[in-house]
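Customer escalation, tier 2.

The customer says the design service returned an amino acid string that "doesn't look like it belongs to this structure." They asked us to rerun it and document both sides in this ticket. The original structure tokens are below, unchanged.
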């Protein structure tokens, strides 16, 4: 989807003045791109209608840079469509916060329950309890117990008891008596919505009286997820959505459709199988991501949580001023290593494409090599890689025990990333999205 948008936008940028017909034409292309990405038809219609009205109204035609202006409208509208502002979880310190996870089988309820418990334990110093109410698969209880043990978070479960409502009741009782301040109920799912399951969920809801009912939706599903979300919302009046598996290739389709259709906010996104792979949902960042502008801010946030504040501020400045050089790069390599896969970070960078990512792949053995190459450069070369000519490349390769091709690949990859960062130099976008995690 974001490739499609990038093509549309590239065409737009080349144009000088836009007329009404141009706008209709671009709008038609946007519509096609969204429909192809399996975004709900009604959503697409409303979206392109809003854009058309605003664009033809005045903003674009009278502007000096109509192409840019139009792109801005598309991004604004998409941000609005995704919920506009960021929505935080409802949690109150000093009271018992009760969360209930619901969703289809395999959506990621159990994993996400553990992720949230872990996140709030770390960031809010909460003492969480997980309650296993999925009694239909013995493996499901075990799964939660394993996750709890891994995270040192208590789990309430009953084996050989097929009474999810009773378990919920006793889990809540334990939580109250032992003063947990967050209790998360993991529930069963089905491959499709069925009445018996819904009945059970309604009863659990009545029993535990949750402060948040979080619908977990597999972000890789398209339109279908809208019907599911609708049904869960109708019967349970959910309080928010969590989109999982947003680390995959198909991003955005479900996000766009769900918020618009059920009018409930997406609160978090799951971005991988690891228990730290969870992020707040930022509508404007997601809009940028879908539109292919990348997401340098999420990148910085993720990097930030691994670094001390001072360093992070410096890095952020440098990103913004496009002042980031190979010295900084080297500095980050080690820290970045501890964050796991670098490509997941690079994917968030503006305009990231597969080719550039390959060039920048620093995982595993490559890291050592990259380090060696950079260390073989002079300080000045690291600051201005542009001055490194052919003979210096040879010398650097020799000095680092690599081939000239390796040096070239590193420099090219670095250069491409810098170009990507440049695309993101609009300070308004950068400032607007800048927020701390809860
Ligand atoms: P449940 O049936 O709704 O409880 O789903 P689970 O929590 O058991 O998750 C189903 C599968 O999806 C597991 O293999 C998880 O590791 C995986 N999963 C969950 N969230 C994410 C995510 O954000 N990204 C990826 N890649 N996998 C996820
Ligand atoms: Mg489960």
């Amino acid at each position: 989807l974001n490739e499609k948008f990038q093509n549309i936008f590239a065409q737009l940028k080349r144009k000088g003045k836009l007329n009404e017909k141009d706008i209709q034409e671009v709008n038609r292309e946007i519509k096609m791109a969204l429909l192809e990405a399996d975004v709900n038809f009604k959503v697409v219609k409303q979206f392109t209608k809003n854009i058309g009205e605003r664009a033809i109204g005045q903003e674009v035609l009278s502007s000096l840079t109509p192409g840019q202006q139009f792109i801005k409208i598309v991004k604004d509208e998409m941000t609005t469509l995704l919920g506009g502002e960021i929505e935080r979880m409802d949690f109150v310190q000093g009271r018992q916060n009760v969360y209930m996870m619901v969703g289809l089988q395999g959506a990621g309820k159990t994993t996400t329950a553990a992720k949230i418990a872990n996140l709030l334990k770390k960031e809010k110093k909460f003492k969480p309890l997980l309650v296993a109410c999925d009694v239909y698969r013995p493996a499901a209880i075990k799964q939660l117990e394993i996750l709890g043990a891994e995270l040192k978070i208590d789990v309430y479960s009953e084996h050989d008891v097929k009474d999810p409502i009773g378990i919920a009741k006793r889990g809540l009782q334990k939580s109250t008596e032992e003063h947990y301040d967050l209790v998360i109920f993991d529930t069963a799912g089905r491959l499709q919505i069925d009445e018996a399951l819904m009945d059970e969920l309604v009863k659990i809801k009545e029993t535990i009286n949750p402060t948040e009912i979080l619908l977990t939706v597999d972000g890789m599903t398209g339109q279908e997820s809208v019907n599911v979300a609708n049904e869960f919302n109708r019967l349970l009046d959910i309080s928010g959505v969590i989109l999982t598996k947003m680390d995959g290739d198909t991003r955005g389709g479900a996000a766009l459709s769900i918020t618009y259709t059920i009018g409930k906010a997406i609160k978090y996104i799951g971005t991988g199988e690891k228990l730290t792979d969870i992020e707040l949902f930022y509508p404007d960042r997601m809009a940028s991501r879908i539109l292919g502008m990348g997401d340098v801010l999420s990148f910085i946030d993720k990097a930030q949580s691994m670094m001390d504040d001072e360093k992070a501020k410096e890095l952020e400045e440098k990103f913004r001023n496009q002042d980031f050089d190979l010295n900084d790069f080297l500095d980050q390599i080690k820290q970045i290593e501890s964050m796991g896969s670098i490509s997941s970070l690079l994917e968030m960078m503006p305009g990231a494409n597969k080719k550039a990512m390959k060039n920048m792949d620093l995982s595993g053995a490559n890291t050592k090599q990259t380090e060696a190459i950079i260390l073989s450069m002079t300080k000045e070369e690291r600051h201005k890689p542009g001055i490194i000519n052919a003979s210096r490349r040879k010398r650097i390769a020799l000095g680092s025990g690599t081939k000239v091709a390796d040096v070239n690949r590193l420099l090219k990859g670095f250069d491409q990333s810098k170009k990507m960062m440049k695309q993101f130099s609009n300070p308004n976008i950068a400032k607007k999205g800048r927020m701390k995690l809860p």
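Tier 2 assessment: The sequence is consistent with the input. Confidence is low (pLDDT under 50) at residues 350-364, 425-438. The longest strand covers residues 212-218. Sent an explanation to the customer and offered a walkthrough call.
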